[in-house]
Amino acid sequence: MANSCTKNCLQDGEQPAIYYKKRYWTFGIITLMSLIIPWIKINGNHIFLLSFDKKELHLMGVAFDTQEFYLMPFLLMLLFLFVFFITVLGGRVWCGWACPQTIFRVIYRDLIQGALLGMRKRRNKQKEPEGQFVKRAVALVLWSILAFIAASNFTWYFVPPEDYLAYMQNPADHPILVGIIAIITGFLIYDVIKLKEDFCGYICPYVRIQSALYDHDTIYTIYDEKRGGKVFDGDTKLWKKPPNEEDECTGCEACVTVCPTHIDIRKGMQFECINCLECADACSKVMGKLGKKSLINWESNRSYYDSEPTQFFRFKILGYLGVMLAVTIALIIMGSNKETMLLNINKSNKIYTIKDDMVNNDYVFLFTNTDNKAHKFYFEIEGTSGIKILRPKREFTVFPDQKLKKIVVLGTTKKVGTNEKTYTKIPLTIRAYAVDKKKEIFVERNTVFVYPPLSEVK
Q: Which of 307, 333, 359 is where one domain is finished?
């Protein structure tokens, strides 16, 4: 089972494994990826972009129109399934190792206040800096700048960064965008400086469901009471250091002072714990000097209480993997069936018009070219109904990502009606296509042609 000691044992002079360094590397990679991904394009489209402005969804370099937003539920299902899966497997590892809230707090507390300004020590997260007003003001300014960058980075997944930079050159012309960024920036400043880890324990909804997902093989942060000794009886703290001679806990409380959520892990599992394993690092350092392994480890109830290997490949885990695989396959299949042109057909307010012996129906065709290059489009009526295209008479060009509205008039001189007193609805199939790729780029839509009562036709 993973713990802070190499091979579960430390010799004099050996250095314990340090979780916080691995977390910092993870934070750096996640931050770098979140900043870079909005700028990456494949065939002119973003890896991920949900643009409400352009009404598009970009996914792995493929642009989908609003009519193809049926993919979004699959993406959301995949996200929630992954979070549930990782919780069942490793407890609140998301909270401690990948959550933006945790990353922001580490940047502000450990990097800005600690490493840059020397206002606090990394090993003491309980004591807030006092006085030092100039340094606190500098920390506020530095975090405000980073909060603005983080807010901008967030909007890049909804407003393409190239558009964002253009909009911000004239912010007065884009008050909604500026307002959204200001609100997000203000919240991040308040959240990181004032709300802090209270967000994790009392506001984040994830904390309310994570304990329900745990099972006997979920790995989480556990204090080894059998070796260290009993410190708490329920919610009552009995003593700082266990009194029995065989109890290995030294009572140094390094695990307490380093905890960012202000808990004592020796009390047992608590909903505030985010599995950051800072306490495991602290205990490893203290116990390592005594040539002993850490009293705080990342393990499961099965490993700790039953002394049996944790069953990572169990039914629940395989079930989540199976469902995620099924959703991913469905997403790939549906995404690969993307239409490179879209067509909406709406009937005009006039049901029909009669001029001489010609019966006409008016329609509004909305063409959308979702390909990355321009095409000339036209359409035809399938079947032999005797109904002809009167307008438009020629093909027309639709540019990439353009929506083009066309007034279409269909007419016939044949008496295709069947009723003397009421109008007749004649089903039609419209086949629209790109002239240069008639067999590759096409779409079919059904509509109706309304023919008047035969008594109205000469």
A: 307
